[in-house]
Amino acid sequence: MVREGRVFINPGTRPAYGVGFRVAVRKPGGRVASASSGLTINLDPGHGLAVGDKFIVGLDDLRYRTVTANSDTSVDVNSAVSVARDEYVINLGTDSGATSPNYDGSGLRIFQDMGLADAYADSTVSTDSTGRYRYFHEGGQTFWELVLAGNTPVAYYLDVQHPEPTTISVKDFGARGDGTTDDTAAFQGAAAYVAAVSGPYGGARIFMPRGTYRISATVALRHGMILEGEGPGATAVSVVPGFSGSSLFKWDLSDGNVQGPGYGARDFAVAGNGVSVHAIHMIRAYDGIILDNLKIDDTGPLSNCYRIEGSESNTTSVAQSILLSNCYGIHARSSSPTAATFYFKSCQEMTLVNCKGFGCYSDGLGSGDVFYFQGCRGVTVIGGAAANSTGIGYHCYTTDRTQEGLTFLGNTCEAVGESYVCESTGGLATKNVYIYGPRIQEATVVPPTATGPIRLASTQLADVRAHSFEIKVQTNSQDVRIWTDNLSRLTENAGSRTRIEADYNSTDPQSNFFHCLGQSLVLDDDSSGGPVFRMAHRSRSPRDHWQWAWSANGGADNGFRLQYYDGTTTRICGLYVDAGGLDVHIARFGVETCKWAVPGSAESSMYLLVNDGVATTLRRVTVGAADSGGAGFRMLRVAN
Question: What is the mean pLDDT of the chain?
Answer without folding.
Answer: 78
